[in-house]
Design brief:
Blueprint lengths: L14 H18 L6 H9 L10 E5 L4 E5 L33 H10 L4 E6 L5 E6 L15 H7 L5 H13 L4 H8 L3 H13 L3 E4 L2 E4 L1 H10 L1
Antiparallel strand pairs: 1-2, 2-4, 3-4, 5-6
């Protein structure tokens, strides 16, 4: 805050293209600053701007990329708690051309962040509109687990993993989260193979399921750090 902020303008475009450009630019700049918020989470919040008809959209990146604030001057979010609960949505028919509109976006974000020592807050903007802030706590700043596991003990706990299992775990660590379609497209797997691989890692306790998204569990994170 001691210098003028760097400003990047996203040029007007079609609705789908604008959402994609906004989400990808935000993710790239946050990641370059050292942030660990995954693209999927940023995309879900970016889609929420459709409710404000993209009026005066401003996205701010703080805390070395680990805090992102999404502000608009639309109608605002009156029932802030319900907006974070599955099934509540104000999306109209035309909006559902571009987003799912089934009330899963912010609840999915909230659930993911709860697994990452993160949080989401929704506030009123100064005159009109809403401000949604998402943040995660960097790994180096997170409190140590209550029960410390020595490296030798962790080595004994690591399940027998194939090279492909390790590749999938490393992929999830790099991306922050994944869906079956992401894994299929990026790793060249068939849908059934991608689903089977993720299901196996879930049964081993290495992966947690949040809706249709998979993230590394706490144990999975320790295992990946041990392997790599």
């Amino acid at each position: 805050m001691r210098s003028a902020p760097r400003v990047t303008e996203i040029k007007p475009d079609g609705t789908a293209e604008f959402i994609e450009n906004l989400a990808s630019t935000t993710y790239t700049q946050a990641a370059q600053a050292g942030g660990k918020i995954p693209y999927t989470v940023i995309r879900e919040v970016s889609e929420n701007f459709i409710h404000a008809q993209f009026r005066e959209v401003v996205v701010s990146i703080f805390d070395r990329g680990n805090t992102i604030r999404f502000a608009d001057q639309g109608p605002g979010i009156e029932q802030k708690e319900k907006a974070q609960m599955p099934g509540f949505s104000s999306a109209s028919g035309p909006m559902k051309t571009y987003i799912r509109g089934v009330g899963s976006g912010l609840p999915l974000v909230k659930e993911y962040l709860s697994f990452s020592n993160g949080r989401i807050t929704i506030e009123d903007n100064l005159r009109s509109g809403a401000v949604v802030t998402i943040s995660v706590q960097p790994l180096e700043e997170r409190p140590a687990p209550a029960t410390h596991i020595r490296r030798e003990e962790l080595s004994a706990m690591v399940p027998n993993l194939s090279d492909k299992d390790k590749d999938v775990l490393y992929y999830i660590m790099e991306k922050g989260s994944t869906r079956v379609t992401d894994l299929k497209n990026d790793m060249g797997l068939s849908p059934s193979t991608a689903h089977r691989d993720l299901e196996r890692l879930e049964k081993l306790g290495l992966v947690d399921v949040i809706g249709k998204t998979r993230v590394l569990s706490e144990f999975g994170t320790r295992v990946v750090n041990q392997l790599f």
